[in-house]
């Protein structure tokens, strides 16, 4: 059955890959990007099944107007994909105020505002799907990526809280957590000011990787396969809340969660010891 999708950030990366695959299989796509002319080749092949609009997702007014116009002109949108994003790298001290504000506005606030703009439409039409392109970086954290991780962890919390609120309206949510894929993500990265104090640490090392001075990070993920898996998840009657893609994502998330559980267990006795004295004793002796 043909569906209609709304996708942000379609000029490159997963947004572009999703748009191409969906059009090839016969779906309609409302594609937004700062440079919608980058989709001219797809428009020439697929005609009016590709709806395009210019959009900087950090412009909340424009975001709402674009969402409203897409629903009005297309009649129904089945799947809303929040994909626009980029990486800001460097130690916190190296990052500028404007860089921090834009990273949060693009990766986190825009996802929240997209949900706020689209939810009334999805409710009125009886349901739909949200797909949030996040990152395994919402489950793990590396040095020199603090602001990027802050936005991805924020997205995880927003959607985990929102998903049960939306479920009664027939609106499902899937958070996609890819590892490093063979996209141009690194090419679109923004670096903070290089301070000499950090040159020999993780921030300096990452700069040398991104500049080509050091070998690139392993990128096992195939964007085409990942996009196909994302599309397949939307075809499931009960999609997963999280979709982990890439062997590196699986291994890194598994190790991080196990370490976190071990640390939590190590602090169990201290946690229970801080309960008030009138707490029912049986609760404090719950079997492990």
Automatic annotation (TrEMBL):
One of its GO terms (molecular function) is oxidoreductase activity. The keyword Cytoplasm does not apply. Keywords: Oxidoreductase. Signal peptide: none annotated. Pfam families: adh_short. InterPro entries: NAD(P)-bd_dom_sf (IPR036291), SDR_fam (IPR002347), SDR_oxidoreductase (IPR051911). Belongs to the short-chain dehydrogenases/reductases (SDR) family. This is SDR family oxidoreductase.
């Amino acid at each position: 059955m043909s569906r209609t999708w709304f996708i942000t950030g379609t000029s490159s990366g997963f947004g572009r890959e999703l748009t191409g695959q969906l059009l090839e299989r016969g779906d309609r796509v409302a594609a937004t990007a700062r440079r919608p002319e980058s989709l001219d080749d797809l428009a020439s092949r697929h005609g009016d099944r590709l709806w395009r609009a210019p959009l900087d997702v950090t412009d909340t007014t424009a975001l709402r107007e674009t969402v409203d116009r897409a629903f009005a002109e297309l009649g129904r949108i089945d799947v809303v994909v929040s994909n626009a994003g980029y990486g800001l790298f460097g130690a916190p001290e190296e990052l500028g105020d404007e860089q921090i504000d834009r990273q949060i506005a693009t990766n986190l606030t825009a996802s929240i505002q997209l949900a706020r703009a689209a939810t009334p439409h999805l409710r009125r039409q009886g349901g739909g799907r949200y797909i949030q392109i996040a990152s395994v970086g919402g489950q793990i954290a590396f040095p020199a990526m603090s602001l990027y991780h802050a936005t991805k962890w924020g997205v995880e919390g927003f959607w985990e809280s929102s998903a049960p609120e939306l479920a009664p309206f027939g609106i499902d949510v899937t958070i996609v957590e890819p590892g490093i894929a063979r996209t141009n993500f690194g090419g679109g990265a923004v670096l903070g000011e290089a301070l000499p104090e950090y040159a020999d640490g993780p921030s300096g090392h990452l700069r040398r990787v991104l500049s080509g001075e050091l070998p690139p990070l392993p990128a096992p993920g195939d964007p085409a396969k990942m996009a196909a898996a994302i599309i397949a998840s939307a075809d499931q009657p009960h999609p997963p809340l999280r979709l982990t893609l890439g062997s590196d994502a699986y291994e890194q998330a598994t190790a991080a969660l196990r370490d976190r559980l071990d640390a939590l267990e190590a602090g169990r006795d201290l946690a229970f010891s801080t309960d008030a004295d009138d707490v029912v004793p049986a609760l404090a002796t719950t079997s492990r």
